[in-house]
Amino acid sequence: MEAVRSERSMEKLPPLQGQVTQRTRLQVWFIRVCSTILIWTCLVQLVAVVELWHPRLLNGFSGFTKMSVYGKESLPSWPPPILLPARNYTSNGFLKVSCNGGLNQMRSAICDMVTIARLLNLTLVVPELDKTSFWADPSNFEDIFDVRHFIDSLRDEVRIIKRLPKRFGLRYGYQPLEMAPTSWSNEQYYLKQILPLFDKHKVVHFNRTDSRLANNGIPLELQRLRCRVNFHALKFTPEIEVLGNKLIRIIRQKGPYLALHLRYEMDMLAFSGCTHGCTEHEADELKRLRYAFPWWREKEIVSEEKRSHGLCPLTPEETALILQAWGFENETQIYIASGEIYGHERRLAPLRAAFPRILKKEMLLDPEDLQQFQNHSSQMAALDFMVSVASDVFVPTYDGNMARVVEGHRRYLGYKKTFQLDRRRLVELLDLHQNGTLSWDKFSAAVRLAHERRMGQPTIRRVIADKPKEEDYFYANPEECLCKGTTCGNLSSHSNTTKVL
Questions:
Q1: Does any domain span residue 152?
Q2: N or C of the chain: less Cβ packing under 10 Å?
Q3: Phi/psi at 260 (nearest 5 deg)?
Q4: Which 3-state string (H, E, C) describes 462-479?
Q5: Are residues 218 and 248 in the same domain?
Q6: Between 326 and 84, the higher pLDDT residue
Q7: Which residue has the higher pLDDT, 489 or 261?
Q8: Could you give the 3-state DSSP secondary structure of residue 97?
Q9: Cβ atoms of residues 347 and 275 within 8 Å
Q10: Are 338 and 362 in contact (CB under 8 A)?
Q11: Phi first, then psi: what are they for 125, rounded to 5°?
Q12: Which pLDDT value is given to residue 491?
């Protein structure tokens, strides 16, 4: 009874309006915040479960972004692209291709194969990537490139399918014609010699694709299609794009940087027979490796003779001297875009002594970031490709496929500074300086003079009749795609600034 009286007496007391109202509002606000957090937590967990079972279900829904496997970076969620109308044509047959070589050799080959399929009105099967080369990378096309974007972005030019119709499968006893087209062929070769093969076979399988389309003498619309595939249709997968952009962001936070494609890896040295600076044991090891691969086997290679002709990649020691001669300062950030350097840290020591701010992807990213890409050399190379294209300066020590394709991308992006080494001249200057004949000042001046017109400026692609291997590579300088109209005018009159980082 006393308790009842107390409660009734309290009901008669006037409320402490200010205190009670403020406290009540805070309580209500706190409850709402907690409820909101709980609801969003449940939704995120629900999305994770749904994505686990149906990863495509939420694609295109702008309220969510699909989380990457890394956990720290999320893949952007873009609205579905507006597709161009598909080109309506009667297909003359199916073109199946197996690319050979490393990432960038395969990349340029894919561009050529799309162009050939368009020329001959064929249906192209998504290309197969090389799994039998030195690198033994098991990656498929869709592991490196965004296959849906590739198909959709070219639908107005050529029909692309993921696999052959079942009736053309080996299971049904169908044997496609297997062949390697003649290297450096123009469109007349494909129209007159390759197209008739489809009347009989319906499916033709190109089992080699490197350099199967000429650099020059190709109709303008076909040259520009090659560029369209290269610069727009061949996008890396979202996982590679996210990690590559993260890598670029980490480097840029510390300032401008130079990307050095230091082509001093074991496979490069074994293939080329270049052993300058190696120990006798290392030279023997490289020779044994070369003879272990039948397609690398050559006559006896004299390393120093080959080097004197500019046919060897610069060593890390030589590269350090050349960068110093160009005027790059000790504090320059240098990103090493390559695989494992032969000789490891011992061979990198002179370069690191000259430029302490040496960076590699393995140093900048967490191990879990790179875990998915381990033992997938082409996916690793894609990260280096992205960092190289985005760099302030790009310096390749050898003019292989990556060097040339990156150079072409940098031209397309506004002639970004790319040093094209005159290795024959550099070897002469290096030897003269190192034997005391040429002072540092004269050596540095000669190095700069030799490269005034070799920094990625606008220029006409060099054509050499009957020597396609010696002329300038289309993908290093796709001039038809870099200027308006049908001609590029006097490109060589333009110049690039010689200022370094």
A1: yes
A2: N
A3: -110, 110
A4: CCCCCCCCCCCCHHHCCH
A5: no
A6: 326
A7: 261
A8: strand
A9: no
A10: no
A11: -85, 140
A12: 53
Rounded Cα–Cα distance for residues 112 and 222 (Å):
9
Distance CA 146, CA 149 (A): 5
- DSSP-derived secondary structure letter, 274: -
Nearest-Å Rg of the Cα atoms of the chain is 30
What are the Cα distances from residue 389, in Å, to 140, 216, 231, 403?
A: 23, 25, 12, 10
**312 with 383, same domain?**
yes
Per-residue pLDDT tens over the stretch 425-465:
999 999 999 999 999 999 999 999 999 999 999 999 999 98
CA nearest to 421, candidates 292, 321, 305 = 321
Query: Which amino acid is present at 381?
Result: A
Nearest in space to 423 (alpha carbons), one of 396, 401, 394: 396
Residue 359 lies in a domain: yes
Checking DSSP bridges between strand 358-359 and strand 393-396, what pairing results, if any?
Answer: unpaired
Give the list of residues 6+ apart from residue 30 with CB closer than 8 angstroms, or none.
Answer: none
Q: Containing domain of residue 100, as a range?
A: 93-232
Residue 329 lies in a domain: yes
pTM over 0.85: no
- 127 plus 226 within the same structural domain: yes
In a domain, 312, yes or no: yes
Q: Report pLDDT for 137.
A: 87
- Give yes or no for a contact between 383 and 404, defined as CB atoms under 8 angstroms apart: no
- Using pLDDT thresholds of 50, 70 and 90, give the confidence band for residue 362: very high
Bridge partners of 125?
A: 161
Q: Are residues 225 and 267 in the same domain?
A: no
